[in-house]
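Narrative summary of target 7.
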Amino acid sequence: MAFGFRALIFLAAPFSVCLALARLTMPPGNAARRQDCRNGVTSTGYLTTAMTNPLQFLQEVRAEASKVTWPSRKETMITTVLVLFMVLLASLFFVVVDWALRLAVTGLLSLGH
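Modeled conformation, tokenized:
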């Protein structure tokens, strides 16, 4: 529910966006700090102004993506196999539960005949 509330704040108004960004970027101990939305800089130094240059945005996205530690091919394969195994295991569990419930309901309904 908190995520939905934060999403609504971002859509409400520019002042709300500025305030929400300050709250999300501040360390937990600095909740009492306020920001100055007139110049777009929070009291902690984070910029909150809207970006107007799409090329700069794409360059920053590329720079941030290069900082990500991507998993190796082996790690990806192991994770994929584990996910598929867990999906199969969950599927079998629900098949067994469905079968047991079907037998129970059929047995209960046959008692009335």
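Confidence is low (pLDDT under 50) at residues 5-13, 30-37.
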